[in-house]
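Quick note —
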Amino acid sequence: MADNGKYRENSQSVQTHLQIIQSVIQRMASNSTSCKAWCITLVSAILVVVADKGKPQYTLIAIFPSILFLFLDAYYLALEKMFRESYNSFIEKLYKGTLVASDLYVVSPHGNLVKSVFKSLLSFSIWPFYSTLLVMVWITKVFVM
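Predicted structure written out below.
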């Protein structure tokens, strides 16, 4: 802690707080990647089973996990962005000298979750992946089966 009760960037408590937020951000990014991997795996498995059974009408079942993972991925991306905002807010308070002890014990996302999820749906890391996947399911139903 610095003079006048102000915290410095090299303070152990400040560094620990920043590391905690960074690890949460990393975990959200990892969860988002896992959503995409699980979605591809599940949709592929469904399409293989449908092709094996010769029932093209059931191809559309693959849309449900796609939409589920779309929203789950958007949720993780929204949380990641909200924790980044929390991180930036903490840094701003640190450099303005307005950081207080209670700020060191709060690790929570900043912002409106619902609004952030819907914003995340428009993200370049979300819509191209899932729209391509849904188009591929449709192409599989129409042309392959």
